[in-house]
Amino acid sequence: GDKYSLGKDFSPFCYLDKELAVAICGDLWDDANLDKLKKMKLAALLWPVYLDFSIEEWNGVYLKEYEERTGNLPYPVLMYNSYVNEENRAKGGAYIFSEGKTLNSLPPGNHGILEVELAF
Q1: What global pTM score does this model have?
Q2: CA angle 72, 56, 104 (to 5 degrees)
Q3: Which among 55, 81, 103, 111 could bridge 96 via Cys, Cβ 3.0 to 4.6 Å?
Q4: Is 69 exposed, middle or buried, given 0-12, 13-18 or 19+ CB atoms closer than 10 A?
């Protein structure tokens, strides 16, 4: 039967005159997928994830890895995490990554809205 697996293709779509695409959770950790995405001309990549690292682990180790992993994409990556209101589960968070750095964020454990303005 059908099961979840990493994507193989990324189909851009137009929203408010901006070309966007979506990568799901682990898609960007596959080098072949990353190479395909590098060639796409997008205003941004949407990246929904489920990360249940502790806030300390995220800030101490993993945030830097995610910044580095998205660093060679020629457009911003808009990563947003799930939120589960239970102990040791995903605590939300949203990030705008560009050129290996965080441009703006709503850190895990916080409620709010992270706005982004896209140019293309």
Answers
A1: 0.90
A2: 45
A3: 103
A4: middle
